[in-house]
Amino acid sequence: xxxxxxxTADTTLAVTLAIETSNPSATADVSASAPGVAIARxxxxxxxxxxxxxxxxxxxxxxxxxxxxxxxxIQPRSIQRIAVSTGPGGFSGLRIAIAAAKMIAEATGARCIxxxxxxxxxxxxxxxxxxxxxxxxxxxxxAHYALFDPDGRPTDRQGDLDASMLSCLAAGRLIADQFLPxxxxxxxxxxxxxxxxxxxxxxxxxxxxxxxxxxxxxxxLPFYAREPEAVTKWRLRESxxxxxxxxxx
Length: 249
Prior knowledge:
Elements: E1 15-20, E2 36-41, E3 44-50, H1 57-72, E4 79-85, H2 91-108, E5 111-115, H3 117-122, E6 132-139, E7 142-148, E8 154-161, E9 173-176, H4 182-190, E10 194-196, H5 202-209, H6 229-241
Parallel strand pairs: 1-4, 4-5, 6-9, 9-10
Antiparallel strand pairs: 1-2, 2-3, 6-7, 7-8
């Protein structure tokens, strides 16, 4: 489990809501992992409410938060901190989670914490003495990676990854979902790297939040490792629809 800083004095008993909906499609075949929300008082986890990976998060997220708060007897105005898994991940899952967090923060005055999704995954990796890379947001033959040391602490190495870069990665393991490009998977096998499935856990998002700064809700933004596909398609359509300049007479 990742090392996290203890809560500061003013947040020892703070009620924290954590939202992890960053990679719903990556969890569809992993029974130990599901998108969802968690609530804690200080460092003590009070409860978790899962969201089905195939549910529409714009319909499911707020009801899940409401169900969990009601079960725990937590009033919305009691929420003082909101930790959100900010990506990289799916465009819709990130956008909806961050919009919900900002709305709740606006209503309650809660502070926000942006938690990189790679850290959420790293918090549930069992340590075996080898550094590891969390690989997310695959597209084509590349993906985004973040490197962690053997004790699960984040390094300053992250960015785009393709098969040709694996030999220089200095990682013995890849934590990657079922969308990992085949070329990367084949090269990892050739190099003797193990590939393990990630766990996306709202409780891990909450745990990671203690090591990260609180920010103004207006500064809470999704981390997109690459341009969302919808934006790419829009740009392409715009370029195709734009009238071509007439050749000079």
